[in-house]
């Protein structure tokens, strides 16, 4: 069975190679080939899953050693895979949602002449992401990590003829590089501390290392996670990444790639458990991002950017849960899976709306679309209910568990975190209701564009609606399925461990509070956007709104602190170079030049001058000789 | 007569010659001053020969005369050709040997 693991990665990788190298001959079948190979990978995943269910305990963890990558004395890098419950969860999510999005893209990208290339990139992304979650050591994980970054760059900049897309791709790549540096430093630290970077030896021998070292490794891993998962302070790329085609936003920037950071922290749980300081920073980052993303999501009029803010916020929840330690790991992953369903569904719904509205993204120019796009409305609506945590749907179960776990952290910390997560839930309810009301309810607000073409909203083709329907099913039922009888907890517990903590309030109280804040959030949104007509031109808004429209000044901050700061640093370095270093070098040269210029004057060509110097020299020699004799 | 007096005379002559070499510009005069220095040396050699009671100094004086005669031939030839090309016998006019 374990020989199948490599095939999981090989299928989409083959697809990427064939599609990207095959040329125009494959234009007509490329998208079918890409989808087929993604589906093949999913089928292999399901087979392995069935096999895993048949086993129990330790036997569930499969291991495949493919080949030795860099066999050097004292440095052993293997290409080896590990498939345990945690990896399995990711494999099913990545290949499952990935296949659905492949199918959706067939319809969405129908009129794009570079569709074959698009599917090649999608397959490349799947292969890299699978490599990331299946690797059994940090070095191979790093390879997948970089591959995911590359695929993300290629897909964000897929419409490279748009300068904004090209810039966004560069921005994403550069910001990700900062995180990647963190990961590479963490791997180097691991190697110097433990002498290896395979998961097994590193994670089982954390007791041998000092806490300082573990904290350093933990913080570097967190930096990596911040870059890939768009957490503060490396969050600025995610909003711009919406320049890519919508299926990319759904697959990479909502359902899978941005969850890599959560995977990394959960997988490295043993390190974080032994480094409480690093864990505290993880929690703080998660809490800050949770509110940051939610506030940004409230102010955006671009439907995709509002959803991007929401993604940031939801991943903040997961990072926060992962930072709670064994209380939260399982729930972080559970929220990750349910989020994968409903956020992919929401993004595909947004893509479907844009498809029907001539690629208009401004929600203020939508309105009343529920009559024109019934299927999109229903699936998007179910995703919406799931994400705000409507009782009974997926998001309700997973988010509620995270809030409970935040309270269970105990002490003042627990109360603060609990309050933050509840506040986040209220804001989530607010901005998602806003998106829903602006898009599907109210009067129609679209107008003919400059060329006189009026959009004719229409339902999208079957290839697009079917994946949306399947994802909507997941959004509705996944959470309940996981939670009843604590199925997900028992499934993942052997890998991540679990503890209940000591909640200061009962689970029922937390659930009630969650539902109350949910109702408050929805009510405020309805009062602001549902009761009265929405203006097509955005009102000026309060100071906070205007700041949130500019992503809470994240780019301005980066510009002032990093770009300007960097410029000033280089300028001062150049100044020092010019004055001090060049000054010493040039000064030495100039003084020798001046001296030789003076000495040169002695060579004036007059024979008598030379005679004087000879005479003088001889006189001095004789005088010296006599003097020496006398002494 | 005390032979040391000859040495005083020799050093006086040598100083006059050296001063002439350094001060005068006319190549002929400079040349003559060089001859004066050589002869001052000869005088000193002969005086030393007398003081030490052997012939070494006198022999060296002969050598010096021979060399001086040869030097005169070459030196005068140079001065003449210099004068021909520059219409001047000033040593300061021949100052091309500089950077």
Automatic annotation (TrEMBL), chain A:
One annotated GO biological process: ATP synthesis coupled electron transport
- Which GO cellular component does the record give, naming just one? membrane
The membrane-spanning stretches of this chain are: 31-54, 89-106, 118-135, 181-202, 214-234, 246-266, 278-299, 372-394, 414-437, 466-485, 505-529, 609-628
Main localization of the protein described in the UniProt heading: membrane
Please give the Gene Ontology molecular function terms for this protein.
Answer: NADH dehydrogenase (ubiquinone) activity; NADH dehydrogenase activity
Record membrane topology: Multi-pass membrane protein
Which keywords annotate this record?
A: Membrane, Transmembrane, Transmembrane helix, Ubiquinone
* Domain (NADH-Ubiquinone oxidoreductase (complex I) chain 5 N-terminal) ranges: 69-119
Where the record annotates domain NADH:quinone oxidoreductase/Mrp antiporter transmembrane, the positions are 135-420
What does the UniProt entry say about where the protein is found? Endomembrane system; Membrane
Q: What Gene3D superfamilies does this protein map onto?
A: 1.20.5.2700
- Pfam families given in the database record: Proton_antipo_M (PF00361), Proton_antipo_N (PF00662)
Recorded hits in NCBIfam families, A to Z, give: NDH_I_L (TIGR01974), PRK06590.1 (NF005141)
Mind telling me what this protein is named? NADH:ubiquinone oxidoreductase subunit L
Taxonomic source organism: Streptomyces scopuliridis RB72
Q: What does the organism's lineage look like at the top?
A: Bacteria, Bacillati, Actinomycetota, Actinomycetes, Kitasatosporales
UniProtKB/TrEMBL annotation, chain B:
Q: How does it sit in the membrane?
A: Multi-pass membrane protein
Q: Cellular location of this protein? A: Cell membrane; Membrane
The protein's superkingdom reads Bacteria
Q: Which GO terms describe its cellular component?
A: NADH dehydrogenase complex; plasma membrane
Family annotation (InterPro entries): NADH_UbQ_OxRdtase_chain4L/K, NUOK/Mnh_C1-like
A single Gene Ontology MF term assigned here is: NADH dehydrogenase (quinone) (non-electrogenic) activity
Tell me yes or no: is GTP-binding among this UniProt entry's keywords: no
Keyword terms of this UniProt record: Cell membrane, Membrane, NAD, Oxidoreductase, Quinone, Translocase, Transmembrane, Transmembrane helix, Transport, Ubiquinone
As its record notes, the protein acts as a catalyst of: a quinone + NADH + 5 H(+)(in) = a quinol + NAD(+) + 4 H(+)(out)
TM ranges are 6-23, 28-48, 60-83
UniProt entry tagged with the keyword Nucleotide-binding: no
The catalytic activity of this protein is classed by the Enzyme Commission as 7.1.1.-
Q: Which GO terms describe its biological process?
A: ATP synthesis coupled electron transport
The record's section on HAMAP family has:
NDH1_NuoK
Summarize the protein's role.
NDH-1 shuttles electrons from NADH, via FMN and iron-sulfur (Fe-S) centers, to quinones in the respiratory chain. The immediate electron acceptor for the enzyme in this species is believed to be a menaquinone. Couples the redox reaction to proton translocation (for every two electrons transferred, four hydrogen ions are translocated across the cytoplasmic membrane), and thus conserves the redox energy in a proton gradient.
Family assignment?
Answer: Belongs to the complex I subunit 4L family.
Subunit architecture: NDH-1 is composed of 14 different subunits. Subunits NuoA, H, J, K, L, M, N constitute the membrane sector of the complex.
Please give the name of this protein.
NADH-quinone oxidoreductase subunit K
């Amino acid at each position: 069975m374990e020989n199948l693991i490599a095939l999981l990665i090989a299928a989409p990788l083959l697809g990427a190679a064939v599609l990207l190298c095959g040329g125009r001959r494959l234009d007509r079948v490329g998208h079918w080939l890409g989808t087929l190979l993604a589906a093949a990978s999913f089928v292999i995943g399901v087979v392995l899953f069935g096999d895993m269910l048949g086993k129990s305990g330790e036997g569930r963890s499969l291991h495949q050693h493919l080949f030795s990558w860099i066999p050097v004395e004292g440095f052993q890098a293997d290409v080896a895979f590990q498939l345990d419950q945690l990896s399995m969860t990711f494999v099913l999510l990545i290949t499952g949602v990935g296949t659905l999005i492949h199918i959706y893209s067939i319809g969405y990208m129908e009129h794009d002449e570079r569709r074959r290339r698009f599917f090649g990139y999608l397959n490349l992304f799947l292969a890299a992401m699978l490599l990331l979650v299946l690797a059994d050591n940090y070095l191979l994980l790093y390879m997948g990590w970089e591959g995911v970054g590359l695929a993300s760059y290629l897909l964000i900049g897929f419409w490279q003829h748009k300068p904004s897309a090209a810039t966004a791709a560069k921005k994403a790549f550069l910001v990700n590089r900062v995180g990647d540096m963190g990961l590479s430093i963490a791997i180097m630290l691991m190697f110097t501390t433990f002498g290896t970077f395979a998961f097994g030896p590193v994670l089982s021998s954390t007791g041998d290392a000092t806490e300082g070292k573990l904290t350093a490794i933990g913080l570097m891993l967190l930096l990596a996670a911040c870059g890939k998962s768009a957490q503060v302070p490396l969050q600025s790329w995610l909003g711009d990444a919406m320049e890519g085609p919508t299926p990319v936003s759904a697959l990479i920037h909502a359902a899978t790639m941005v969850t890599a950071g959560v995977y990394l922290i959960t997988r490295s749980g043993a390190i974080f458990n032994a480094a409480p300081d690093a864990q505290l920073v993880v929690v703080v980052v998660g809490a800050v991002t949770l509110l940051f993303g939610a506030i940004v999501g409230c102010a955006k009029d671009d439907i995709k950017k509002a959803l991007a803010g929401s993604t940031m916020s939801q991943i903040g929840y997961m990072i926060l849960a992962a930072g709670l330690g064994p209380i939260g790991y399982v729930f972080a992953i559970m929220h990750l899976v349910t989020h994968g369903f409903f956020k992919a569904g929401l993004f595909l719904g947004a893509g479907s709306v844009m498809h029907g509205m001539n690629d208009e993204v401004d929600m203020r120019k939508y309105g009343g679309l529920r009559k024109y796009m019934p299927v999109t409305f229903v699936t998007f609506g179910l995703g919406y209910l799931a994400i705000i945590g409507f009782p009974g749907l997926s998001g309700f179960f997973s988010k509620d568990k995270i809030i409970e776990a935040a309270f269970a952290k105990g002490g003042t910390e627990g109360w603060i975190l609990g309050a933050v997560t509840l506040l986040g839930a209220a804001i989530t309810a607010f901005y998602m209701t806003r998106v829903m009301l602006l898009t599907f309810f109210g009067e129609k607000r679209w107008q003919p564009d400059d060329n006189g073409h009026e959009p004719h909203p229409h339902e999208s083709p079957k290839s697009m609606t079917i994946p949306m329907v399947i994802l909507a099913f997941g959004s509705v039922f996944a959470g309940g399925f996981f939670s009843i009888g604590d199925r997900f907890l028992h499934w993942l517990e052997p890998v991540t461990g679990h503890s209940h903590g000591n909640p200061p309030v009962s689970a029922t109280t937390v659930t009630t509070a969650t539902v109350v804040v949910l109702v408050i959030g929805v009510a405020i949104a309805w009062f602001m956007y549902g009761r009265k007509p929405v203006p097509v031109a955005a009102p000026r808004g309060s100071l906070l709104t205007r700041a949130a429209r500019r992503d809470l000044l994240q780019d301005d901050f980066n510009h002032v602190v990093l770009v300007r700061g960097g410029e000033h640093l280089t300028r001062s370095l150049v100044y020092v170079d010019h004055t001090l270093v060049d000054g010493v070098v040039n000064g030495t040269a100039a003084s020798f030049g001046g001296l030789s210029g003076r000495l040169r004057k002695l060579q004036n060509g007059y024979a008598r001058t030379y005679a004087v110097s000879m005479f003088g020299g001889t006189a001095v020699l004789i005088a010296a000789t006599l003097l020496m004799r006398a002494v | 007569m005390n032979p040391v007096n000859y040495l005083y005379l020799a050093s006086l002559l040598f100083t006059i010659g050296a001063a002439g070499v350094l001060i005068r510009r006319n190549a002929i005069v400079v040349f003559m001053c060089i001859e004066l220095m050589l002869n001052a040396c000869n005088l000193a050699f002969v005086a030393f020969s007398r003081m030490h009671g052997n012939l070494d100094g006198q022999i060296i004086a002969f050598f010096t005369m021979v060399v001086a005669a040869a030097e005169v031939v070459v030196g005068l030839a140079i001065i003449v050709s210099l004068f021909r090309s520059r219409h001047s016998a000033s040593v300061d006019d021949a100052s091309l040997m500089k950077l």
